[in-house]
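Much of what follows relies on a compact textual record of a protein's fold. An example makes this concrete, so a full record is given next.
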Amino acid sequence: MRGRAWWGLAVVVILLAACGEPTPVGNPTPDWPTAPPLPASPTVDPLLPTGDGYGGAAVGASNPTQAALAAEGEPDAQGPTITPQPTAAQLPMMITAGDGLVLQATFYGPAARPAPAVLLLPMQDRDRGSWTLLAERLQAAGYAVLTVDLRGYGETGGQPDWRQAQDDVRAALAMLSELSGVNRSQLIVIGAGIGANLGLNLCAETSGCAATVLLSPGLDVQGITTAEAMGRLGARPVLIISGENDNNNPADSVTLGSLARGDHQLVIVPISAHGTDLFDAQPGLLDQIAQWLAARVPPGAALPTPTAG
């Protein structure tokens, strides 16, 4: 019995010796042959599928319109900045009157320089916005244009004062004549209603005023008279426009036309509108005025040659 136990123990010892940890062996690194480098493939324009079969763009095709849109959560991309032509600018301006009141005005720059310059004077109870269509039409024809709010109206403060307004329009025309690119010998004054009365007097006393246009002028409006001013205008061109049923205005316009001593034209429109309200019923008057001016004070005319002093 003892012999068998010893023998069994010997067998166990032999088996444990055979199961000992083998000596670790590193992983072999195969010696692969090195392949020769391949030349770079030529760059080509890939041909994308023409569509997805349902009328849409092919998958993977670039959509420049979509690519220009901002991603969700990002601010919209700024569009291209359009720089306005400097000659087509409409600039706010301020004119200081003799008593310190600031008159608000808008300047419409000319397309070419030097250019004839037009001052537009509104009628009573209207502001410079009543001239916008004509101002833009004259600007497109090559004229520099200045519209102004008379005292007490529009953006100009103060109270209406027609005696003081005579000095105001002088200040406006003086500033217009000093602007760069304005031909001082080609000044034009256009007025409506009492603005026509102010404009005729202003043109008559200004040597550089080459022509005037009067919409619904009167012989005496708010104490501003016109008969004597028409005589002082001399042979300079004048265009008079009046509504046929505008109270007694057609008669005043006819009288002023008979007093004109030079190139003049009288247009009686068969409506009852007054001043710039004539444009609402007869928009063709805008072109008629522009054409009349172009024939008498055309943009691009040569400056007078200065004489030796």
Remarks:
- The CA atoms of residues 101 and 189 lie 22 Å apart.
- The two ends are 158 Å apart (CA to CA).
- The longest strand covers residues 182-192.
- The domain at 86-296 is CATH 3.40.50.1820 (Rossmann fold).
